[in-house]
Design brief:
CATH architecture of the largest domain: 2-Layer Sandwich
Mean pLDDT: 94
Structural class: alpha+beta
Number of domains: 3
CATH class of the largest domain: Alpha Beta
Helix content: 25-40%
Strand content: 25-35%
Order of helices and strands: EEHEEEEEHHEEEEHEHEHEEHEEEHE
Largest sheet: 5 strands, antiparallel
Strand order of the largest sheet: 6-7-12-10-11
Shape: globular
Length: about 325
């Protein structure tokens, strides 16, 4: 079951060619158990990997890569769904719509597995996955126990969760509480012009917008948005607006969310190339990798961060996991 010296270029959407010292595919509880025993016996580090669409490998991984292919559960209980983490996220959204369960349609088209969703607290077009999660079943690779975490336990925040700092937790199953009645969330600017009667129509519009604005990682290797929208205090907003009257920003609880794409474009970085990596011409948050080595994209992201910081005194934070 344990493979050695595994090439990971097919398992990350940047197609970076690095090897893992050890590799296992976890499809069942017994597979997870085997991975746990191997880690304990050899006292090695490990990384749980979904579809690899939000990860940047910087060097060979000297440990065990646990590939999540866990697809044990997919059950509906009235307006609740229990789904295993190894399923593809977008197919799950389609499954919910077909079964008249609503709320996730604005998150259509986001790449990756169901299990990756809570880690990043994925969000798009006015919705976040955390609004629909009731609880999560995890396997704890430190203790070997199965645990249940309710929504509050998960410490969800903007593109953040408990799981980001607790990478020993393998998300097995997620319990969603969804809506029986479709009420369109068209709060996003590009959706306001439409009146959606069906969730499937809203999904089509979301996919159309995404295809128009974002790059397909299958043809242009990328990890989607490379940077988070920075959060600043209200007092700092006044200083920025005094310099940039047309600054693009949104209210976010007690803070202000600044558009990272707007900042990058104002620095004239859209389309900028550095060696074998470039900022997408379609969306300035997307960095495209054309190298089997991580060097080009790492240098490009550092260059973008430095230029934005020098001009606006705002430090951009990476959205993908850098390993």
């Amino acid at each position: 079951m344990i493979v050695t010296n595994k090439d990971l270029s097919e398992f990350n959407s940047l197609q970076i060619a690095v090897n893992a010292k050890y590799y296992i595919e976890c499809k069942t509880d017994s597979d997870i158990g085997e991975a746990f025993r191997f880690i304990k016996k050899n006292k090695i580090k490990f990384l749980i990997l979904g579809e690899g669409t939000n990860v940047v490998f910087t060097k060979p991984y000297v440990g065990l890569i646990i590939k999540n292919l866990f697809k044990k559960e997919k059950k509906i209980y009235k307006n609740k769904v229990k789904i295993s983490s190894g399923y593809n996220w977008d197919r799950f959204v389609t499954f919910c719509i077909k079964n008249s369960l609503y709320g996730l349609e604005n998150l259509s088209g986001i790449p990756g597995t169901v299990g990756a969703g809570p880690i990043q607290n994925i969000g798009a077009y006015g919705e976040e996955i955390s609004d629909y999660i009731e609880h999560i079943e995890v396997f704890n690779f430190k203790t070997g126990n199965v645990e249940i975490l309710n929504n509050m336990n998960c410490n969800f925040g903007y593109r953040d969760s408990l799981f980001k700092k607790n990478k020993h937790l393998f998300i097995k199953n997620i319990f969603f509480k969804l809506k029986n009645k479709f009420i369109a969330n068209n709060s996003y600017q590009d959706l306001k012009v439409y009146r959606f009667k069906k969730a499937s129509d809203l999904r089509k519009s979301i996919l159309k917008i995404r295809n128009k604005k974002l790059e397909n990682y299958m043809t242009r290797p990328n990890v989607g948005s490379f940077f988070k929208n920075p959060l600043i205090k209200k007092k700092d907003l006044k200083i920025l607006i005094s310099k940039e009257a047309d600054l693009k920003f949104y209210k976010h609880d007690s803070l202000i969310k600044i558009s990272a794409a707007w900042l990058i474009e104002r620095c004239n970085l859209k389309g900028m190339r550095f060696n074998k990596a470039r900022v997408s011409n379609k969306h300035s948050l997307v960095l495209i990798n054309e190298d089997k080595s991580p060097n080009s994209i790492l240098k490009l992201k550092n260059k973008v961060k430095t230029i934005v910081s020098n001009k606006y005194n705002i430090r951009l934070e990476e959205e993908p996991t850098i390993i």
